[in-house]
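Form 7-S
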Amino acid sequence: MKEQYNDGFFNISGSHGFLPSHNYDLDLPTKFKPLIELCDALPILKKENRFGILHYPNLICEKVKDLPNLISQVNEINQLTDNSLRMYYLQMLFRYYSFLTSSYCLEPTYNSYIKDKSYAKARNIIPQNIAEPYYKVSELLDCFPWLEYHYSYGLGNFKILNHKEDFNYELEDIQVKSLFCGDLDEINFIKVHILINLYTPQLIDNLFNVLNQVKEKNAYQTIQSLQNMYHCVQKINEKRKLMWKNSNCDRYGSYRIFLMGQEGNDKIFDDGLLYENVNETRLKFRGETGAQDDIIPTLDIFTGIIKYYPDNILTKYLENLRNYRPNIIIEFLNDLEKDSVNLKEEIFNVCNLKGLIYYLAIINEIYLFRNGHWQFVQTYIMKNTNYNVATGGTPLNMWLPNQIDSCLKCMDDIFTQFDESKLVDNDLEEKDIQLLSKMKIEQNRKKRLLESQLNELKKQSSNLQNVINLNKELNENPN
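Output:
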């Protein structure tokens, strides 16, 4: 693998992880003022309890008509010789146009959801004055012209207010830039996703160290880096749990509307989007989803969980989502997949059982992340709507169990490599043996939980509360 993967905006390395790498704190040039002012006025709830454009039905249509077509100004940005500054401006433009386009298209759906939790048809013709510059920016970034996780809703949508050397950030250390609803629940929803990614410099640094040190046959350094990765993912899981107390599950459905895409959402978008004066055929894209985040896909590849993905439509969906990432991240994931093919065997050969225990502990944390995410889906989405389509366009109640099962099967295989007699002879500390023992004890309980929940969901008259109640000891929800 390369030491870093840099496209001028992202630099996947031990210095930046999956975070933007720039140090700029600049506004767009003044020629984009009409776009900025319109987008800043969109959120339903503004400061001091004022209402924005999306609070008033159909007002966005009138405002969009007054927006100039900024295609020539976009082309001027692309002429900048400083690629880092060019990418910085292009990402900002992409974020603004993504929020504007999603707001324009999905405002009717939002209004119907607020009224009676129905899902009215979205507007599916994007006016030329938005379509042309938005499509051009997406071409320059080589991404799809629709709201996504990296350049718009998530990783390209925040500012750090208080920098911390230990990466132990809190919600108040982050400022979110663009919003739909504008309430604290949406703000904290975005912030939690940023918080977990603020640990990725640590994560990627140690991942590279494992790959390098295992090839050098340096057992001590490999084990230390595996332990660091394990503790890092533990911290990521702890920050993820902040969602429960800081973002009301009953409010999620409102801003979730604006994250939906066309693929799999025919009920809302019919046969897709028409970008006026850009394309003659309608297009469909997947919506913004946390599955576009890079932490778990990276760890799935690193640990070999991907070898346990079942051959089904849900796995094909995950593979398709790789295309919804910036090219530099796709390159990183592809290279990682090549370099990690025999990583489990290499770790065992160099580090014996001690290395394998911490490799297994990382997989266990992946399971806990996915199971926690599955609990979010049950409580934040399934409990509040009968519309069984995720924002990414997949069946809502099956794609996470699909990947949870892969984690458990991967762990089962590794457990078979541990023989009790070897544990006595091997150079293991008591804490290592206790960690392994704890994971072994929990394994059957995890498998029973998943099986019981899937059996309940498969019933013709399934009861969601029964599914939620089954979480019991693994329940994360403190409410």
